[in-house]
Design a protein that fits this description.
The structure is a homodimer. Chain A has a single domain, classed as Multidrug-efflux Transporter Regulator, Chain: A, Domain 2, CATH 1.10.1660. Helix content of chain A is 69%, strand content 0%. Chain A contains 5 helices and no strands. The mean pLDDT of chain A is 92. The interface between A and B is large, with 42 and 42 residues. Chain A binds a DNA duplex through helix 2.
Chain lengths: 127, 127
DNA sequence: ATATTACTTTGAGTTAACTCCAAGTCAATA
DNA sequence: TATTGACTTGGAGTTAACTCAAAGTAATAT
């Protein structure tokens, strides 16, 4: 699979993909004899994982560390697990914040809906 | 309430608070005759709201626009509601991403747990 | 074979959101 | 009253994560 195809599949830019490879967010990608990237199924799984993790704010640094450990082989299994647990804790924390922001937005919007329907602004609608 | 107290209450820096006021994420804050900020209850509600929204990635620009509309009075009720609905859609989208990242992390971690317990790496543990 | 297009690399530039700095003012204490 | 420490402003600097540009090479269409 070419870089273009991967980019279209996941709606990202070639620059981002090359950047990911350059800094090590994904391992080095297969190349043709001409030096052009030819993403294998495994490469694509790494890309998919990177995009998923990044979309939840997992830092590039953490993904680099994970790949680094992965490439060192089975001796790093526990270290990798610990890294994932750390990442999960962060993602969960953010998830909770997003949820409470949703609650706040829903409350505010319901107040606005009421105000717009009845013409009455209760104190809570201030702000 | 002084800037220091507000910062301690919400665990942010004075620089961030001043920045929020400067760019309009919160309306201008009350001052003492000497020009020192003296946050009123209402000011603090604005701060709380800003921190909550920012923690869920609502852009500073959107918060500025909301305050701008708010200060124009009741004629902007609908515009403000629309802005909130727009923000909510974005937050929900992110929330969904965070949730699917959590699912992926939970799956991976469970695989690692198994591998560490049994000493067997199934294919899925790769990556 | 030639022209066009897509790829390559390295390195610089951009963006949002802070974060820090310098110089000055004000308030509280010795 | 002098000093200490917290506040003020305007503007510059930082950071993470891309994003773009320039110059060159390779693959494809005519």
């Amino acid at each position: 699979m070419t870089i273009k195809e991967v980019c279209e599949k996941y709606d990202i830019t070639p620059d981002t993909l090359r950047y990911y490879e350059r800094v090590g967010v994904i391992p080095e990608v297969n190349r043709t004899k001409g030096g052009i990237r030819d993403f294998s199924e495994e490469d694509i799984k790494w890309v998919e994982n990177a995009i998923c993790m990044r979309s939840a704010g997992v830092p590039v640094e953490m993904l680099i560390e994970y790949v680094r450990l992965f490439q060192q082989g089975d001796g790093t299994l526990e270290a990798r697990r610990n890294l994932l647990i750390e990442a999960r804790a962060e993602v969960q924390k953010q998830l909770d914040k997003y949820q409470s922001t949703m609650d706040r937005l829903n409350y505010k919007i319901s107040r606005y809906d009421e105000a717009l329907k009845t013409g009455i602004l209760s104190w809570d609608d201030k702000q």
